[in-house]
Amino acid sequence: xxxxxxxxxxxxxxxxxxxxxxxxxxxxxxxxxxxxxxxxxxxxxxxxxxxxxxxxxxxxxxxxxxxxxxxxxxxxxxxxxxxxxxxxxxxxxxxxxxxxxxxxxxxxxxxxxxxxxxxxxxxxxxxxxxxxxxxxxxxxxxxxxxxxxxxxxxxx
Length: 156
Hints:
By secondary structure, the chain is mainly alpha-helical. It has one domain (2-155). 79% of the residues lie in helices and 0% in strands. It contains 6 helices and no strands. It has helices at residues 2-23, 30-52, 61-91, 95-98, 103-111, 122-155. Helix 1 (2-23) packs parallel to helix 3 (61-91), helix 2 runs antiparallel to helix 3 and helix 2 (30-52) packs across helix 6 (122-155). The radius of gyration is 18 Å and the shape is elongated.
């Protein structure tokens, strides 16, 4: 039951978070898309935990929620990497947002010999989307485990 919960919860969360990521491309809707994506990661974990704790052979809801969160976060990260060129074209440039990075991060790029203006391309946009994908994956796994834990607690 745990594996089925992981897969079904992950797929349901992936569908929701993909839709919210597509919504996030629209500049005026972008600020609403992130909280909705956070809820979708937690919802995926909740669905996974709920499925795992039902039936004769009850599984661990937290584990199913964690797995569902990982699947959801991976799908969300891949969708964001695929949408990065579209987001770049709609936004016009990424250099404005690059200057909002902390000074330590900017200095790290300079120490590595990376010019920030060289990252103001579609490739740079994809580069930052790939970096963000790892953070999304970890955060989605944590929120998925939280959702699975909630489902497990409600089933008892």
